[in-house]
Amino acid sequence: MSTPYLLIERQGPVETWTLNDPATRNALNDAVVDGLLQACAGAAQDATLRIVVLTGAGNAFCAGGSLGGFANQIGHPLQEGQSDPLLAMNRSFGDLLHALSALPQLLVCRVDGAAMGGGFGLVCCADHVVATKRSVLGTPEVTLGLPPAQIAPFVWQRLGESTARQCLLQGLSYSAEQALQVGLVHEVVEADNDDAWQATLQRLLRAAPGAVASTKQLLFSLRGVVPDVRDDAAQAFARGLRSAEAAQGLAAFARKQPAPWTLSGKNTA
Q: What strands lie across the sheet with 187-189, from one edge to the other?
């Protein structure tokens, strides 16, 4: 069921889920996360659905998590005995990543523009990723004073430990071609190349739905080697957002200035 922030369109065996908040570059707010969780629950029970396409409206795929509703909590530690609303919010995003990964259908991300932070995490859940040449995919969290908490195990699984460490600990961004080289993206196309997109869908529809579901279940069972860190990740994110580092980093980002911990690159020894 479509909502203002999430458009759902069905064409035969293919359902397209479009993040629809171009003004924020399709940032993930509570309504979007809840809508996607409901869509995942419905898809898991739909034997006629074969492909789920996740994409974004406007000129971005997804800019990451929306912090607008928690702006007054950035840099402010909890008072003793106070419960933290950030925990449930961040845990829900972790639930979404797990639900997307567990879909019995093929999950295809169609990326055009920025896929940052949480949007990068969404891409890591996909079975197939098509990106336009102008797309940029990155994990800038640590440069803002935040841990990329919920997405970390999915980035680790998708890219392998060495590349995931580079990506997450340095806050790297990849062009579409670079993302293709590291295995994050599977196809790079020109923007608005509908012929290439239709050819991709036809190729994917050659796979039998029952065989796809069984194979994905087997692959998902292998995820037992990746710890379920949703609760720990929510705690880490909440602590990070309430830290002085996050307050300084996000303020510097808003002013388009370097964060205070950024060095000039000169030898300070």
A: 6-11, 14-19, 51-56, 106-111, 128-132, 187-189
Q: Strand, coil or helix: what is 96?
A: helix
What pTM does this model have?
0.94
Does the structure show a pLDDT above 50 at 18?
Answer: yes
**pLDDT (0 to 100) of residue 269:** 46
Provide CB contacts within 8 A for 171, sequence distance 6+.
Answer: 138, 139, 140, 141, 142, 143, 144
Q: What amino acid occupies position 260?
A: P
Tens-place pLDDT, residues 123-163: 999 999 999 999 999 999 999 999 999 999 999 999 999 99
Residue type (1 letter), 105:
Q
Buried b (16+ CB within 10 A) or exposed e, 230-253: beebbbbbbbbbbbebbebbbbbe
The full set of domains in the chain, from first to last, is: 6-194+213-225 (3.90.226.10)
